[in-house]
Amino acid sequence: xxxxxxxxxxxxxxxxxxxxxxxxxxxxxxxxxxxxxxxxxxxxxxxxxxxxxxxxxxxxxxxxxxxxxxxxxxxxxxxxxxxxxxxxxxxxxxxxxxxxxxxxxxxxxxxxxxxxxxxxxxxxxxxxxxxxxxxxxxxxxxxxxxxxxxxxxxxxxxxxxxxxxxxxxxxxxxxxxxx
Length: 179
What we know:
Layout: E1 8-13, H1 20-32, E2 35-40, H2 52-66, E3 82-86, H3 92-99, E4 103-108, H4 111-127, E5 133-137, H5 147-155, H6 166-176
Parallel strand pairs: 1-2, 1-4, 2-3, 4-5
Helix pairs in contact: 2-6
């Protein structure tokens, strides 16, 4: 058993919207793997606040807001070590194979996440045991941060700056104002 020559992690989710907690997991993945691919997927159980293209843009903008050094003149993030895409109508494992991922990254915030992640881990391992799933626990300050919380607090007019980056807060404002 040896480490793959070049590792590439797939971090997939609905990211609707991307939060500071998601970006904490991205940070940990970038410190662990050679490359990270963040993929926006569609969760049929959730109604999206933002469309797919806007979600992709908000991820890119949030990364650059948090880490200004990530941006390059050609639009690459962290010199190509981080890219953002989307997947639909296929399993997480099939998409991981398609992009050449060597690992799948998942984030854990609280104990209630564990059962769902435990089941997904077993399912993924059964489908393709060659693509291990790696779980990161977000930093303590992000344990209560979720996309759902951002949407709920925004809906009642509360400040969401502690949950999301300024570009995401601005997108919520624009949405409320009908722009």
